[in-house]
C-alpha cells in the first residue's frame, strides 16, 4: 500500500501522517507513505499511490485542480480531500473523491475513511500489471478480462486494450487469487465476473471474446465457478 499526503502546512502534514500511520488498518500492509508540500512536487515525482490525502488549499493550485489532473490518467487511486471549507465538495464531484474531511481532522473521521478504503481494496484491489516501476500500469482487478500467455510473453487483456507484463502466469495466479480468477488452460487465466456464457470447452466473455478450457480443467472450473456464483 502506497499513500501520499499533499499538504503545504508542515504542522498539518506531520499530524496527518502520524494519525494515518496509527489508524491505518493492518490488512492494507503499508509499504510507503510520502508527504508533498504542493501539487508541483507531487506531479514531478510521477509516482503511483493507492491512496491520496490532498489538502484543498494549496499554494500554486487548489487540491481539487490537482485531483482533476490526476484523474486524467489515473482512475484507480482513492482520493480523500482535507478541507477547512465544505464548499469545495461540489467542485471536487467529478474527481470521484472517497471522502471530505474537515480541518482539524478528527481521528474518528479519518479512521472511518481508512476503514472504508480498506473494504474497497478487499473487494476490488488495484493491481500493478507490468511488474516493473518504469512501465507500471495500474488497474482494478475487476477491469481484467483475462491474462494470456502468448509465445514468450504474458499479456493482460482489458476492455479495449492489452498490456504486456514482465510477471509470470504463476505470479498473476497468486496476485489475483482463486476467488475471482481461474486458470482454464496453460495459456489462460480468466476473470469469472466477465464470463457471459459457457459453451462446451469454450468460455464466451461479455465482450464477445472466446477463451478455451482444457479437458482436465472442466470439472474444477465448474466447481470454482459455482462457488463464485453463490458468493455473488
List the defining traits of the structure above.
five-stranded antiparallel beta sheet, Rossmann fold, alpha/beta, 15 strands, OB fold (Dihydrolipoamide Acetyltransferase, E2P), 2 domains, five-stranded parallel beta sheet, single chain, 7 helices, 31% helix, 232 residues, elongated
Q: Can you give a write-up of this model?
A:
- This protein is of the alpha/beta class and 232 residues long.
- It has 2 domains: 2-123, 3-Layer(aba) Sandwich (Rossmann fold), CATH 3.40.50.2300; 127-231, LytTr DNA-binding domain (OB fold (Dihydrolipoamide Acetyltransferase, E2P), Beta Barrel).
- 31% of the residues lie in helices and 29% in strands.
- The chain has 7 helices and 15 strands.
- It has helices at residues 10-23, 39-45, 63-71, 88-91, 107-123, 169-176, 218-231, and strands at residues 2-6, 32-36, 51-55, 78-83, 99-102, 126-128, 138-140, 144-150, 153-158, 161-165, 181-183, 188-191, 195-199, 202-205, 210-212.
- The model has no long low-confidence stretch (mean pLDDT 91).
C-alpha Rg, in Å?
Answer: 20 Å
Strand order, sheet with most strands: 2-1-3-4-5
CATH topology of the largest domain: Rossmann fold
Report the order of strands and helices: EHEHEHEHEHEEEEEHEEEEEH
Strand content: 25-35%
Number of helices: 7
Q: Mean of residue pLDDT? A: 91
Distance between the termini: 26 Å
What share of residues is helical?
25-40%
- Quickly name the level 1 CATH class of the largest domain: Alpha Beta
Q: Tell me the structural class.
A: alpha/beta
User: Would you report the number of β strands?
Assistant: 15
Largest sheet at a glance?
5 strands, parallel
Amino acid at each position: 500500500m502506497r499513500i501520499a499526503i499533499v499538504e503545504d502546512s508542515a504542522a498539518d502534514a506531520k499530524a496527518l501522517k502520524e494519525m494515518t500511520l496509527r489508524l491505518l488498518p493492518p490488512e492494507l500492509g503499508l509499504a510507503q507513505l510520502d508527504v508533498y508540500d504542493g501539487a508541483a512536487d507531487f506531479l514531478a515525482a510521477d509516482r503511483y499511490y493507492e491512496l491520496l490525502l490532498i489538502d484543498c488549499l494549496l499554494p500554486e493550485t487548489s487540491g481539487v485542480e490537482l485531483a482533476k489532473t490526476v484523474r486524467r490518467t489515473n482512475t484507480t487511486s482513492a482520493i480523500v480531500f482535507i478541507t477547512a471549507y465544505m464548499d469545495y465538495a461540489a467542485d471536487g464531484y467529478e474527481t470521484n473523491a472517497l471522502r471530505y474531511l474537515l480541518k482539524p481532522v478528527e481521528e474518528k473521521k479519518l479512521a472511518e475513511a481508512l476503514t472504508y478504503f480498506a473494504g474497497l481494496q478487499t473487494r476490488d484491489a488495484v493491481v500493478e500489471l507490468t511488474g516493473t516501476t518504469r512501465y507500471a500500469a495500474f488497474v482494478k482487478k475487476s477491469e481484467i478480462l483475462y491474462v494470456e500467455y502468448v509465445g514468450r510473453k504474458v499479456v493482460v487483456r482489458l476492455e479495449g486494450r492489452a498490456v504486456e507484463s514482465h510477471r509470470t502466469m504463476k505470479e498473476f495466479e497468486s496476485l489475483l487469487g482463486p476467488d475471482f480468477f481461474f486458470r482454464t488452460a496453460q495459456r489462460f487465466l480468466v476473470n469469472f465476473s466477465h464470463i457471459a456464457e459457457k459453451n462446451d470447452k469454450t468460455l464466451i466473455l461479455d465482450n464477445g471474446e472466446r477463451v478455451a478450457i482444457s479437458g482436465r480443467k472442466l470439472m474444477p472450473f465448474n466447481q470454482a465457478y459455482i462457488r463464485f456464483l453463490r458468493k455473488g
